[in-house]
Amino acid sequence: MIVTCMCMVWLLVxxxxxxxxxxxxxxxxxxxxxxxxDSEYWMSYISGLNNAARDFDVNxxxxxxxxxxxxxxxxQMITDLLNKDIDAIAISPIDSRDISYIDIAQEKGIPIYAxxxxxxxxxxxxxxxxxxxxxxxxxxxxxxxxxxxxxxGIISGSLTQAGHRExxxxxxxxxxxxxxxxxxxxxxxxxxxxxxxxxxKELLDNNxxxxxxxxxxxxxxxxxxxxxxxxxxxxxxCAMDAQQDAYEAVKNGRIMALANHSGYENGYQTIRRITxxxxxxxxxxxxxxxxxxxxxxxxxxxDLQGEP
Length: 308
What we know:
Layout: H1 2-13, E1 20-21, E2 29-33, H2 40-56, E3 59-63, H3 71-82, E4 88-91, H4 102-108, E5 112-115, E6 126-127, H5 131-145, E7 151-155, H6 162-178, E8 182-187, H7 197-206, E9 210-215, H8 218-230, E10 236-240, H9 244-251, E11 257-259, H10 263-279, E12 293-294
Parallel strand pairs: 2-3, 2-4, 4-5, 5-6, 7-8, 7-9, 9-10, 10-11
Antiparallel strand pairs: 1-3, 11-12
Subcellular location: Cell envelope
Family: Belongs to the bacterial solute-binding protein 2 family.
Domain Periplasmic binding protein: 30-276
C-alpha cells in the first residue's frame, strides 16, 4: 500500500529527473511512459515496475498522461523523456500509428520498446500479452456458449491502439473461421471508460438476438455488467484485464469469462526484460505473455498478482 501511494505521488508531481522510482543502482535508468494512470490496471502495472526495479537494481522514470485520450500529451512526454539521461525507454502508445519520436531515440542510441500495446507497421520490440490470442480464446468460449450461432457485439477501447485492435481481430477472426455467429456491432473509443446507459439501451434495442458482448477492457465491461444486471438481461459478457472488481464479477456471474491480463506481470516483465537485454547483454527470445481465461469454475484458484 505504501509503494502504491508513493507511486501516486510521483505521478502527480510531474515529469522531472527526481521523480524516479528510487532504487540502489543509479547507473542504469529506464524511462517508462504508460497510456494513463486512471485505472486499477495501470496502478497494478506500476506496482510491477516498482518491484522489478528493486529486484534488478535499476532506476525507473515513470510518466503518464491523465487518460488514454491524451495522445498529444503523451507524445510530448516521450519527446521530453528522450532528452533526459536514460538508457532505454518503454512506451505503451495511445496512438500506435505515431512514430514521430522514434528517430530521436535512434539518433540518441536509446533502445525503444513497446509495452502493453505494440506499434503498427514498425519493428519495435514488444513486451506484453498476446492480445490476438486473448481475443481468440474468448471467441472460442463465446462460440461454445452460443453453439456456433446467433450474434455478438463488441465494445472496444480505441482502435488506434494496436492492443485493442488485435483483441478485436483475434475475436472476430476466430468466430468467422469456426462458427456462423454474426457480429452485430463494433464500437470503439472506450479505453477505461463506461458507456452511457442511453447508448447501451439503444444497442440492445437494435439487436434483440444478441447473446454475448465482448469488451476489450474491464472498466467498460463492469459498467455494462451493472446495466445488464439491472435490466435482468440474459446477455453474457466476456472481457479482459486482471483487477479485483473484475474477478468478483466473474465469481458472481456478471462476467462469464475474463482473460487474466495482469498489469502487474506486464510491468514487472517490462523492466526485467529491458534490464537483461540492454544492461546485462543477455540474448532473450522474443516471447509474449499468455493470459489464462478465468471463469466461475476456476476463478477461485487465482489472486491478484503482486497485491497484498
